[in-house]
Amino acid sequence: MAERKRATRAQSTTRLSARAHRPELHDGERFDLIVIGAGSGGLSAATRAARLGARTLLIERDALGGTCVNRGCVPKKLLSYGAGWAQVLGTCLAATGGREDWSDAMTRVQAELGRLHVRYDENLEGAGVLLAEGSAVLGEGGMVQLADVRLQARNIVIATGARPRTLTIPGAQLASTSDDIFTWQTLPKSIIIIGGGYIAVEQASILARFGVKVEMLVRSAALLANFDHDLAQGIGDALISQGVRIHFGATVDSISQGNGAIEAHFRCEGRADRVRAQAVLAAVGRQAATEGLGLEAAGVQVNDKGAIVVGRHFRTTARHIHAVGDVTQHPQLTPIAVAQGRALAQHLFGKYDIVNDVDFDLIPTAVFSEPALGTVGLTEAAAAEKYGSRDRIEVIARRFVSLENRFKGNAQQSLIKLVTHAASGRVLGVHIMDAAAPEIIQTFAVAMRLRVRMSDLRTTLRVHPTVAEELFG
C-alpha cells in the first residue's frame, strides 16, 4: 500500500499541454480578468469572458479540468463502468477467470483524461484565453503574484476548487484519500472506508465490484445524510448484498499498522472495536483549497469551514475579487461551478446578466454506485417540514425489479419515489434508484422547473418497457 501512497499525481494527470497559448508575462502586465484555477468553474469563467472580448489570463498549477476531470466525476464514472464489466465477466466467465482488471480499467481512464486535456487546451486557445502555469498569490489592489512577476487585473476570479478533507486522529497518515485511488496500479485485497457520503458510497461500490473486500465505518445512522431516507436505505441494502460490511454509528479513534495489515480502531455504541484490512480510505468530505492564496492580505473572508464567503454575483469581501465553485460556501458540484463561472463572466463583460436565469435552488444530482441514485427537489422529510405536516404531502413509491436485472438473474429492486403536494398535485421531489437514475433525473429536473403536476404525468404517453414509465402513474 505504501507504493500506492507514494505514487504522484503526475502519474494520473497530464500537466498543462504544450499546445496552450502561453505568453511571456511581464511585470505590471494588465488583464481584464485573471482566473486562478482551471477546474470546471475557472474554465467556464475564463472561456466565456475571453469570448466576450476580455483579455483573460488563466493560471493553473496542476492539470486542466480540476478535480472533476482528473480525480473526481469523470475517472470515477469510468471506473464504475469498469467495475460493472468486471463484475459481469467475473460472474459469467468464472471458469476461465475472464474479467476486465483494474490495470486495464486505469489505462482506459488515463486515455480518456488525456483526450479531455487536449480538448480543454484547444477550447482555451480557440477562445483566446492566455494560460500560465504556477501558483498565484493575491495582493492588494488587483495584484496577483505569479513566481517573480506581478500582474494586475480589473477583476479576479478564485476557482481553486476543493481537496479531500484529512483525518485528525493518530495514524491518519496511513489512510489514502479519493485522490490517491486514481494513482493506484494495483488493488488491495481488502479496504476500510471511513465515511458515508457520496465518495464513500461510490468507492465502496466500485471496489466491491472489482473484488475488493470492503468494510465501511459510518459515523451516522445511515448513508448519504442529505438524501431521501428510502434511497439511503436502498443503497445500503444494495452494498450489503454485494458483500460490503457497514458499521453504522462508528467513531474512528485511531489507525495503526502492524503484521502486514492496517487496523482502524473505533467505538460503536460505547463499545471499542477494530477492523483490519490491507488499506484504509478516508472519505470524510472535501474542504476549500485556499492555502497559499494570500486571502487574508487581500481582504477575502472565509467562513468557519474555510470556504470563501461570496454574495451577489459571487463577489467576495474584497473589491473586484470573485469566487466560484467548490472553493465557496455553495454545494460542491461540477454543474454548479460551471453555471457560476459562465454567469459571472456574463455579468462582468456581457450585455445582459444571466445570473438570475440559472436555478441554483433546484439541483439534480446523482450517485454513480450500483445501483445508481438520482435525486432532485425535496426529500419526504424536507417536504413535510416545509409544509408543516405530513398530511399536506403525498408520497408515491414504486419498487420493482427492472427487465435488465431480471435478464441478469439479479433480484436487486429499483425504486422510484415521488413527493408531491397533496392539494395541488405538484411534484416537489423525485428520487430514483436504478442504473438509469442519473439520465432520468436530468430530464425530470426540467419538468420540475416547469412545475409539473401528477395530472401532467398521468396524461403523458410513456415509452414501454422502460424504467422511467414508472414515474407516470
Task: Describe the protein.
The chain is an alpha/beta fold and 473 residues long. 32% of the residues lie in helices and 25% in strands. It is built from 14 helices and 21 strands. Strands 1, 2, 3, 4, 5, 6 and 16 form a seven-stranded mixed β-sheet that branches. A five-stranded antiparallel β-sheet has the order 17-18-21-20-19, sandwiched between helices. It has a four-stranded parallel β-sheet with strand order 10-9-8-14, with helices on one face. Helix 2 (40-51) packs parallel to helix 5 (102-127) and helix 2 packs parallel to helix 10. The chain starts with a helix and ends in a 15-residue tail after the last helix. The model is unreliable at 1-15 and 94-100 (pLDDT under 50).
Q: Features of this protein?
A:
473 residues, alpha/beta, 21 strands, globular, disordered N terminus
Structure at a glance:
The chain has 473 residues and is α/β, with parallel strands linked by helices. The protein is built from 14 helices and 21 strands.
Topology:
Elements: H1 2-6, E1 30-36, H2 40-51, E2 56-60, H3 66-71, H4 73-92, H5 102-127, E3 130-133, E4 136-138, E5 143-146, E6 149-158, E7 162-164, H6 178-181, E8 190-194, H7 198-209, E9 213-218, H8 229-241, E10 245-248, E11 250-258, E12 261-268, E13 271-277, E14 279-282, E15 286-288, H9 295-298, E16 321-323, H10 334-349, E17 365-367, E18 373-377, H11 380-386, E19 393-400, H12 403-408, E20 414-421, E21 427-433, H13 437-449, H14 454-458
Parallel strand pairs: 1-2, 1-6, 2-3, 6-16, 8-9, 8-14, 9-10
Antiparallel strand pairs: 4-5, 5-6, 7-15, 11-12, 12-13, 17-18, 18-21, 19-20, 20-21
